[in-house]
Amino acid sequence: MTQPQLRALIISGGWPGHQPQQFAQLISRMLREDNVDVTASDTLDVLGDTDALQGYQLIVPNWTMGTLSAEHSSNLRDVVRGGTGFAGFHGGMGDAFRTDTDYQFMTGGQFVAHPGNIRDYHVDIHDTSHPITRGLSGFDLRSEQYYMHVDPSNTVLATTTFDDAHAPWIAGTVMPLAWVRRYGEGRVFYSSIGHAPEEFEHPTVAVLHRRGLRWAARNLV
């Protein structure tokens, strides 16, 4: 019997500095290459249709800052708690809806700073046994190095270590950079990489992000 095609919803908007429409196209292409049927929305109104939301196996938030209504927040969290995957990157997921602490509880973290803004830093693979990171090695990247408040219950996949160049008091701080977690029956994946579209061209980043999307959608063990 042929497996039904997975369906994903990408919700894009918010602060334009993170190029939400460019990232929507990039993420859509990644998913379609894995034979996922993609629906792209540039409005949060899509979160008002609970019946439609339950038809997706994956939701990708791509909405930096902004405000989520109580109804939309509840609908989103309910569908993820019920088993829909939730996966995203950088500010589009980790700096979305800053006043919604229930949303942050689901995502497992919240951006608070990027000392030095765009800079060179190193990424370490923390968990080499997880199917998302298996076989991957540490790498160097030029991007915003996110300092985040992070839920200690996350399963950390990758980390980055801060130096004393821009905020000496955090020198040596090891910060989770990519993680997974459960929210009810839903799988959640997050990576803080993704300030600019060209970062997805890095070969290790491309594998990490593609696998993260697939894992959240239960298309990767």
From TrEMBL:
ThuA-like domain residues: 7-216
Pfam family, one: ThuA
Superkingdom of source: Bacteria
UniProt cross-references to CDD domains, sorted A to Z: A4_beta-galactosidase_middle_domain
InterPro entries: Class_I_gatase-like, ThuA-like
Residue intervals passing through the bilayer: none
Name by which UniProt lists this protein: ThuA-like domain-containing protein
